[in-house]
From TrEMBL:
It comes from the Bacteria. GO terms for cellular component: cytoplasm. Belongs to the L2HGDH family. It holds the Pfam family DAO. Signal peptide: none annotated. Keywords: FAD, Flavoprotein, Oxidoreductase. Residues 4-394 form the FAD dependent oxidoreductase domain. Coiled coil: none annotated. This is L-2-hydroxyglutarate oxidase. The keyword Zinc does not apply. The lineage of its organism: Bacteria, Pseudomonadati, Bacteroidota, Cytophagia, Cytophagales. Its cofactor is FAD. Gene3D superfamilies: D-Amino Acid Oxidase, subunit A, domain 2, FAD/NAD(P)-binding domain.
């Protein structure tokens, strides 16, 4: 059988893309290839579960438009499919005077992105939202929420099957070649033919892109591990909903924060450290070949030179629970080291170009036979239906 489109990667973005294509054209033959024995095992399943509002992203960017559109689509989908979620709101807190202008910039960005009701709050109001949080200034964002994205992804998968799509688990893409306008995808369990390949391979998206388009040699995925602690059950009262710091504008991560989880518990973190393999969820997980590739990449060398101080601080927090606690105490002084127990970790697929640019925006690139989603970090889960719609639109023009 020749499929109209084969999607490589059964994470939340790949599944949303398949769902959107089938919604518009239920007559098309669509298959999703996932290398694991279950869908959504990597960035999706290890996500912090925040429904992002669109506060941080440059107005007009793909991140801003897809996050805001995706937010509304996601909420509607959860309501229709009866997936539990909550719109909790969050506070973003400046803990030092020099952060106040950055907080003001964030507020203006949020308002430009249409976040009605986002506003500065007094320190007295901050205590009403988060009684144990301290700072010198704060804003409240009412749109932020929490959900279990693994459950969302499984629901996308169920809808795809219901609409006649096919999902193949334990099918790792090994190579892609073209003959007579058809792509031949070799997997660990067989081969597939497709008129179009859609690459949503996350942490391996650059490698899959190079299988279908030798011209994709200017971007490499750099894996950053984000490690979390959880608050002990008896100390969860210290956090009502979500508490964020003012992020460093030069570093594409949000800083350690507190998140109440929809599936229960309160997470504290994450830091952001280089992972020694692409799916390296633990410090002990090392792939020397993948690590060597990362270290040899000219763009990574430039990133390391530019951010070495920030990176060293993140690494120090990775190995020092005391240092991690100290960072959390900026927001909640009452937090003690003994309040924290080991949580999980996620690995973020961060695209980096040759010049040392950490791609801030989503990056989707088309070639003759493929559409490659090359950069879709946070807020990709929130934005999934919107990104899926964008990719589906590109795909449908070909049929």
């Amino acid at each position: 059988m020749v499929y109209d489109a084969v999607i490589v990667g059964g994470g939340i973005v790949g599944l949303a893309t398949g769902l959107k294509i089938l919604k518009s054209r239920p007559d098309l033959k669509i298959a999703i290839l996932e290398k694991e024995a279950q869908l959504a095992q990597h960035q999706t399943a290890n996500n912090s579960g925040v429904i992002h509002s669109g506060l941080y992203y440059k107005p007009g960017s793909l991140k801003a438009t897809n996050c805001i559109n995706g937010y509304h689509e996601l909420v509607n989908f959860c309501q229709e499919e009866k997936i539990p979620f909550e719109i909790t709101g969050k506070v973003v807190v400046a803990t030092r005077e020099e952060q106040k202008p950055l907080l003001e910039t964030l507020l203006n960005r949020g308002l430009q992105n249409g976040l009605t009701g986002t506003r500065k709050i007094t320190l007295e109001e901050l205590k009403e939202y988060e009684p144990y949080c301290t700072g010198v200034a704060a804003i409240h964002v009412p749109q932020t929420g929490i959900v279990d994205y693994f459950q969302v992804a499984l629901a996308y998968g169920r809808k795809i099957i219901q609409q006649g799509g096919a999902i193949f688990l334990e099918h790792k893409a090994l190579g892609i070649s073209q003959k007579d306008g058809i792509s031949h995808i070799e997997t660990s369990k067989g081969s597939f033919q497709a008129k179009l390949v859609i690459n949503c391979a996350g942490l391996y998206s650059d490698k899959v892109a190079r299988m279908n388009d030798a011209g994709v040699n200017d971007v490499k995925i750099i894996p950053f591990r984000g490690e979390y602690y959880k608050l002990k059950k008896e100390r969860e009262y210290l956090v009502k909903n979500l508490i964020y710091p003012v992020p460093d504008p030069n570093f594409p991560f949000l800083g350690v924060h507190f998140t109440r989880m929809k599936k229960g518990g309160v997470e504290a973190g994450p830091n952001a450290v280089l992972a020694f393999r692409r799916e390296g969820y633990k410090k002990s997980q090392i792939n020397l070949g993948e690590l060597a590739e990362t270290l040899a990449w000219p763009g990574f060398q430039k990133v390391a030179g530019k951010y070495w101080k920030t990176g060293f601080g993140e690494l120090y927090r990775s190995f020092s629970k005391t240092a991690f606690t100290k960072a959390l105490q900026e927001l909640i002084p009452e937090i003690q080291e003994s309040d924290l127990v080991d949580g999980g970790a996620g690995v973020r697929a961060q695209a980096c170009d040759r010049t040392g640019g950490l791609l801030d925006d989503f990056a989707i690139r088309e070639s003759q036979y493929a559409i490659n989603v090359l950069n879709a970090p946070s807020p990709a889960a929130t934005s999934s239906l919107s990104i899926g719609g964008t990719v589906a639109e590109m795909a449908l023009k070909r049929f």
